[in-house]
Each structure stands twice: as structure tokens, then as C-alpha cells.
Automatic annotation (TrEMBL):
Upper classification of the organism: Bacteria, Pseudomonadati, Pseudomonadota, Gammaproteobacteria, Chromatiales
Protein's name in the database: 3-phosphoshikimate 1-carboxyvinyltransferase
Gene this protein is translated from: aroA
InterPro entries in the record: Enolpyruvate_Tfrase_dom, Enolpyruvate_Tfrase_sf, EPSP_synthase, EPSP_synthase_CS, RNA3'P_cycl/enolpyr_Trfase_a/b
Single Gene Ontology BP annotation: aromatic amino acid family biosynthetic process
Function statement: Catalyzes the transfer of the enolpyruvyl moiety of phosphoenolpyruvate (PEP) to the 5-hydroxyl of shikimate-3-phosphate (S3P) to produce enolpyruvyl shikimate-3-phosphate and inorganic phosphate.
Binding site for phosphoenolpyruvate: K32, G105, R133, Q180, R357, R398
Stored Pfam families: EPSP_synthase
First-level EC class: transferase
Annotated keywords: Amino-acid biosynthesis, Aromatic amino acid biosynthesis, Cytoplasm, Transferase
Subcellular location: Cytoplasm
GO cellular component terms, semicolon-separated: cytoplasm
Domain Enolpyruvate transferase: 16-431
Length: 444
């Protein structure tokens, strides 16, 4: 295995030229959340799991590498295909070294839950950004289940997860709407005695629950409460992963704002816990057509057509926030191009993602001449004319790709700094964006 580059190469910039329009048919890479879960459950299953559409991005490759380091035999990925020879619930082996998870919060939080129930110790580490992400949100409830996990004094990684701790099922009402926290506890719950129940303050993505069922593990849902009984088994299966709506989101926004644009995004996952972007853009006046084309791996998929239209500012309903949580950098760009004011509140979680996405986007939009006022848990954006200029993504993949879309309406060239992490969720973004009509190149 190649040595892993632990210090991010923060030198890569995108340069985008003004103008252009998006057109054609695009298929963005596989869903990141579903790809992580397919590897995790495939590794724990009895028998072989065959995955297609796997996201070959750095985040999901970090999860895959972690299981190889725990003795799981995994073939691929090659063209999105991965074959996992599951070792069963008790078959993971102690890793020789700490596991390096790069930029991936999902890997750190989900694996913390899973490893809490093992018979060996594991240390989880990450890059600069992951080393700042809050982990008490999983470590505290896991401790209530009997886990023993050490963090830094700030509650951040590295995480030292001590094995050989008997776990007990609990009922936990999450203080924040987080699919990572829910999934972490459910994975620990597989190893706990009794029932583990998680209550959500608002619906969050439910890929873990759907996929557990797909691997033959019963999951009960009663309203906002999801429960599993520990001690069962998972069975290898076939998992077809749809294109990631969070990656499609950049092109949805680009097509909505770019004069003359008309694109068709193919085979996109439209799980209702992920489609907040569609609801919000439609409320802003976007022209979006959705043609459901089937269900793959327990997830609904669709072709999404977006044509340019005049957008107007809105007050974003708070109940849509968890359903569009990763799409706000792109939505802020839509708001910057809309007529009037867009107000977002109840989205404090954006401040603890790969970057403080409220501040980073506000700074960037201001640098491009837009009035963007951060608040404690949101932002107020006045639509206006975007100028050219220089913005900084602070190593945040979603901010980098969102800023790239501003070129469709900007008056001058834009330099976006620190874009290497785009590969964490969207390998091939530059080529796909170029092919669709964005005038974009990278610069070292
Ligand atoms: O469970 C998941 O796969 C994810 C859940 C969300 O995080 P939170 O659980 O922190 O909201 C999201 O932002 C992240 O990109 C992926
Ligand atoms: C927040 C994200 O991912 P993670 O939490 O896995 O780093 C994201 O991809 O936008």
C-alpha cells in the first residue's frame, strides 16, 4: 500500500473564467454516504458483498483502507466495483498501526461506534480539518453504552478506542440532527446487549437503516425513533450505489443560475432525506424536472433536468436544513444570484463541517462583491452582481466546488485557493465541469 500523504497539499487552485452555460447529460460519482456504509456492512457480513457505483474519493477510500488494515480482503475499487469478503461480526483483527482517515468525518464517527464493540484497541487519526471536528457528540453517548474512548482535551481526534468493553443498549435522544451520530450508535448497537434506540430531533439521512435491512438485519422505526437489537448477523449482498445528489447539487445550482443552461443529471439518488436541495431551489424559482427511474440498493433514483431560470430570495424553512445540510455552500451561490434576500437560520452545524462553511462562504461571496452577513446559526445573503476576484475554500471540497459555479455569472475571472480536497468527494470534478461548459482549470 502506498504511504499516505498526511499533510494536505494546499497549493492547488482552480481558475475559472467568466461566462459559459451548462449543458448535456452528466453522471456524477457515486454517493459518498452510501459508499462508506456499503464497505462497513460488507466487511461485517458473512459472505461476499459486491458493490457497483462505489465512490472512489479519498474519504470512502479511507474507510476501505481501514477495513483492509483490519484484515478484511477487499478487491477493487475498479470502475466503481468493489468486492468485499466479509469476515462476520467477530472477524475483524487488531490493526498494527493507528488508522488514518484523512478528511472524513463520516469515517471517524461511524467507525468510533463500530470499533467500540471490538475486542482490540484502535486509534483513529485524520488530517488538520478532521483533527478539529467535534467527536464528543459520538463519544458521550457511546460512553453511556459502556464504551471507553479517549479524545484530545478539546474532544477532537485522535480517538483512542479501547476494546473489550461490554456494551449495553440505550435509548438516546440526539441533541442535534445528525445521521453520523445516529449511525455510530446503531453500529455500536450491533454489539450491545439489548436494544439500542436513537431518537432524532428531525429526520436525517437514513442510509444506514436502509442498508442494514438490505444486509438482512432487522431495524425498527417508530416515528422519530429507530431501534436495533444487538447480537444479530449481516449477510453479504449486492449493493448498487446511485450518483451522489450532494455532488449533483453543484451542477443543479450552476444550471439554475447560468443563462441558457439545460442539463440532465442521470441516475441520482433521491432518497427523501437528501432532497432538501430540490425543495429549496424550487422555492427560489428554479426549473427542475424529476423523472424517477427506479430503486437501486433500496434507494430511489431519478434523472434530474435543470434549466436556467430567474431565482428569487427566500426564508429557508428550518425543517429543510438537515435534508440539505451538505448543499448549503452551493445554495449560498444560488442565493447570491437570486433577486432579493435569502435568510438561513437553524444551521449552526455548518460551522463544524470540514470548515466553518458559513464563514468561508460569507468571506468568499463578499470578496466577489456580494453582501453576505453571517449569523450565529446561518447567513443573510442579498442577491447581486458577482465580480471576479480571489476566494479561499479553506480546504473544504464543497466550498471549492460551490465557488467554481459563480463563474457562470461573474464579471471577471475567479481564483479559488486550496482546492485539492475536492478529490475527497468528487474525483474528476474538473473534467466533468469542463465537459459541461464551465471554463475551469487547475493551477499549482
Ligand atoms: O452520515 C453521513 O454520511 C453524513 C451525515 C452528515 O453529517 P452530520 O451527521 O454531522 O449531519 C453530512 O454532513 C455528511 O456529509 C455525511
Ligand atoms: C460534511 C461532510 O463530510 P464528512 O462529515 O464525512 O467529513 C461533507 O461531505 O460535506
Amino acid at each position: 500500500m502506498q504511504p499516505i500523504e498526511e499533510v494536505s497539499q494546499d497549493t492547488m487552485a482552480f481558475v475559472v473564467e467568466p461566462g459559459g452555460a451548462l449543458s448535456g447529460r452528466l453522471r456524477v460519482p457515486g454517493d459518498k454516504s452510501i459508499s462508506h456504509r456499503a464497505v462497513i456492512l460488507g466487511a461485517l457480513a458473512e459472505g461476499v458483498t459486491r458493490i457497483t457505483g462505489f465512490l472512489e474519493g479519498e474519504d470512502t477510500l479511507a474507510t476501505l483502507r481501514a477495513f483492509r488494515d483490519l484484515g478484511v480482503s477487499i478487491e477493487g475499487p475498479e470502475g466503481g466495483r468493489v468486492e468485499i469478503h466479509g469476515v462476520g461480526m467477530q472477524g475483524l483483527q487488531a490493526p498494527e498501526e493507528p488508522l488514518y482517515l484523512g478528511n472524513s468525518g463520516t469515517s471517524a464517527r461511524l467507525l468510533a461506534g463500530l470499533f467500540a464493540g471490538q475486542s482490540f484497541d484502535v486509534i483513529l487519526r485524520g488530517d488538520e480539518s478532521l483533527s478539529r471536528r467535534p467527536m464528543r457528540r459520538v463519544c458521550d453517548p457511546l460512553a453511556r453504552m459502556g464504551a471507553f474512548i479517549e479524545t484530545t482535551a478539546q474532544g477532537t481526534p485522535p480517538l483512542h478506542i479501547h476494546g473489550r468493553q461490554p456494551l449495553y443498549g440505550i435509548e438516546y435522544a440526539m441533541p442535534m440532527a445528525s445521521a453520523q451520530v445516529k449511525s455510530s450508535l446503531l453500529l455500536a448497537g450491533l454489539y450491545a446487549s439489548g436494544r439500542t434506540c436513537v431518537i432524532e430531533p428531525a429526520p436525517t439521512r437514513d442510509h444506514t437503516e436502509r442498508m442494514l435491512a438490505g444486509f438482512g438485519y432487522p431495524v425498527e422505526r417508530e416515528g422519530a425513533k429507530v431501534c436495533i437489537q444487538g447480537g444479530g448477523s449481516l449477510y453479504g449482498t449486492v449493493v448498487e450505489i446511485p450518483a451522489d445528489i450532494s455532488s449533483a447539487a453543484f451542477f443543479m445550482v450552476g444550471a439554475a443560475i447560468g443563462k441558457g443552461s439545460d442539463i440532465l443529471l442521470e441516475h441520482v439518488g433521491i432518497n427523501p432525506t437528501r432532497t432538501g436541495i430540490v425543495d429549496i431551489l424550487r422555492r427560489m424559482g428554479a426549473d427542475i424536472e424529476i423523472k424517477e427511474t427506479g430503486v437501486v440498493g433500496g434507494e430511489p433514483v431519478a434523472a434530474i433536468r435543470v434549466r436556467a431560470s430567474r431565482l428569487h430570495g427566500i426564508n429557508i424553512p428550518e425543517d429543510l436544513v438537515p435534508l440539505a445540510i451538505d448543499e448549503f455552500p452551493a445554495l449560498f451561490v444560488a442565493a447570491a444570484c437570486a433577486e432579493g434576500e435569502t435568510v438561513l437560520a437553524g444551521a449552526g452545524e455548518l460551522r463544524v463541517k470540514e470548515s466553518d462553511r458559513i464563514q468561508v462562504m460569507a468571506d468568499g461571496l463578499q470578496a466577489l462583491g456580494i453582501s453576505a452577513q453571517p449569523t450565529a446559526d446561518g447567513i443573510i445573503i442579498q442577491g447581486g452582481k458577482l465580480q471576479g476576484g480571489e476566494v479561499h475554500s479553506h480546504g473544504d471540497h464543497r466550498c471549492a466546488m460551490a465557488f467554481a459555479m459563480t463563474s457562470l455569472v461573474a464579471k471577471g475571472p475567479i481564483i479559488i485557493r486550496d482546492c485539492a480536497n475536492v478529490a475527497t468527494s468528487f474525483p474528476g470534478f474538473l473534467e466533468l465541469a469542463c465537459g459541461a461548459g464551465l471554463v475551469i482549470r487547475s493551477r499549482e
